[in-house]
Amino acid sequence: MAGQRWSGAGKGRGLSLRTVLLGALLVGSLGAGVTMLAHAAEPAVSIPPPALDPPSSGGGLQKIVLAGGCFWGVQGVFEHTKGVTLAVSGYSGGSKDTAHYEMVGTERTGHAESVQITYDPRQISYGKILQIYFSVAHNPTELNYQGPDSGPSYRSAIFYANDTQKRIADAYIAQLDRAHVFPAAIVTKLEPFTGFYPAEDYHQDFLVLHPTYPYIVINDLPKVENLKRLFPAYYRDTPVTVMASSKPTE
User: Fold this and answer.
1) How far apart are CA 61 and CA 138, in angstroms?
2) Contact yes or no for 75/202 (Cβ under 8 A)
3) Which three-class secondary structure state does DSSP give residue 164?
4) Which of the chain's ends, N or C, has fewer CB atoms near its CB within 10 Å?
5) 112 phi/psi in degrees, rounded to 5
6) 92: which strand partners?
7) Is 84 among the residues known to form the active site?
8) Sequence-separated (6 or more) residues with CB below 8 Å from residue 242
């Protein structure tokens, strides 16, 4: 059942269900029957847009780094979001030397699985991205876990790049808490951005490349459907992918 905390699910507490399934996928040992698992993700929450969402003062593309559990689902949501030009899975909150999947899984690096989102502020605002993040991409009331994954590497966090990003995010969290749109207080941390390190290639575009993978079917495809349902003006059927952006131009 989505949202339940599996015994020993955190990578810091041994192998998680996600890690076991990933290993099976990489060695080609997943049985065909596991793709028949039903969707069972936590429901999205319809929330108001941020009251404070000023137009971007800088020209050109902007970036934001968000963490909200497994980066596969967060990346998948924003790859399907209009105005986003690139969404990269990676690690933020720790050092470059420890920005590796197995090391992050020890829960001793300070890193969170994160997604660096590059967006065009003429098409989508910073505040709208936060609204999608809180509403669709993850549950911001869960402390150091999301769905079957637990540990600080799965924490909810906004790595703000400047005072404006911090101010808007802080005001929005306070707004949502006052409105009691969630059944519990938001636990999302606001952490200063110190670096982002892309994850290993096999993590990139995972939702797009493996739509029948059990973890994706249960936890992440419903998030994309919720994006389509709650934010139809910002949903695009054809995702923008890291794979496509890395292709050489002719």
Assistant:
1) 24
2) no
3) helix
4) C
5) -120, 145
6) 112, 196
7) no
8) 86, 87, 88, 89, 204, 205
Q: Which two tokens stand for residue 156?
A: 């909810």
CB 100 within 8 A of CB 231: no
User: Residue 18 has which token pair?
Assistant: 């996600």
CA distance 12 to 71: 17
- The average pLDDT across 143-157 equals 96
What's the token pair of residue 188? 């999302």
**Residue tagged active-site, from 70, 74, 115, 221:** 70
Residue-wise pLDDT for 5-53, tens only, equals 222 233 333 345 555 556 555 545 454 334 333 335 667 999 999 999 9
Q: Catalogue all structural domains in the chain, each as residue range(s) with its CATH number.
A: 11-230 (3.30.1060.10)
Q: Among 28-32, 106-110, 119-123, 138-142, which is the least confidently predicted range? A: 28-32
For strand 189-192 and strand 62-68, is the pairing parallel, antiparallel, or unpaired? unpaired
Please give the model's pTM, rounded to 2 decimal places: 0.86
Rounded to 5°, the CA angle 24-26-29 comes to 40
